[in-house]
Amino acid sequence: MAVIIDGKAVASEKRREIKNRVENLKSEGKTVGLAVIIVGENPASRVYVNNKKKGCAEVGIDSFEYALPQSTTENELRELVKKLNNDERVNGILCQLPLPEHINEDAVINTISPKKDVDAFHPQNVGHIMIGDYTFLPCTPAGIMEMLKFYNIAVSGKKCVVIGRSNIVGKPMAMLLLKENGTVEICHSRTADLKKETLSADILVAAVGKAKFVTEDMVKEGAVVIDVGMNRDENGKLCGDVDFEKVEKKASFITPVPGGVGPMTITMLLENTVRAVE
Ligand code: NAP
User: Fold this and answer.
1) What one-character-per-residue DSSP string does 149-218 give?
2) Which residues of the chain have pLDDT under 70?
3) Which atom, in ligand 1's list, is nearest to the CA of 163?
4) Which of 119, 147, 169, 173 to mutate to test the pocket of ligand 1 (most atoms within 8 A of CB)?
5) CATH assignment of 139-262?
6) Could you identify the atom of ligand 1 that is nearest to the CA of residue 188?
7) Which of 54, 114, 137, 176 is least surrounded by Cβ atoms within 10 Å, i.e. has the fewest?
């Protein structure tokens, strides 16, 4: 039976540390503020934004919400971002994705000042991640690295297989594992024999977006299994990309959904906001 990685516990310890750093900055007369932009009425985005604001309140970061109507134009949104780039109360700017279809997400991300880009999506920050020299950490992968560290799971020399190559999760995840000297492989929908690849993994990260996609026959005995997925199962219950009940019996460590990667992602956003001031 695997050790279940408790993302909530790791997040709460990390948030305590962040709260202290915020208090120190405030005692030096500095402000720590995050602007959160949401466009339209996507219910999932609303939940994420509310959780991010709650996270800010918990550690003493000021949050400023900009809720814009669905009809907002790309130009109007970019003008708001430019205004926030110059707003001294705002150290971090987060634009909740996805944006409505008529807005080009890349154009908006590219407008955010790299110094306030707490999601680390701006090409300049992506470049820094590639080089391995960065201020802003990509939140979900960075949260996973924190969890591995917390549980003393060594990455160096290990075979790490990441399923998924998105710019938000898969690619930066591979870069962070590589930086810690893992031997890294990225799989995707065109991978010829996925099971052959996943069976070689000492550390397996699933970021696919398909409920219970990773089954026990795809996992090596004793592997560390990190489940990034956030899906709904046939009964509408939140579940990951991994068939948890069965894989748990084979893995040495496993993250549950909910309560695994999710709580760490927002925590690393708070970490980035504090770093923006520090
Ligand atoms: P995404 O952009 O849709 O990427 C999914 C990746 O999975 C793609 O690279 C795709 O390959 C690959 N894939 C799809 N079907 C596959 C198959 N049959 N075999 C192998 N690879 C396959 O998704 P994402 O943004 O990375 O998110 C992934 C999941 O993580 C989602 O469930 C999302 O909700 C969740 N998520 C959670 C958090 C959190 O904080 N917990 C944060 C971000 C995302 P191709 O590139 O070839 O299409």
Assistant:
1) HHTT---TT-EEEEE---TTTHHHHHHHHHHTT-EEEEE-TT-TTHHHHHTT-SEEEE----TT-B-GGG
2) none
3) 21
4) 169
5) 3.40.50.720
6) 21
7) 54
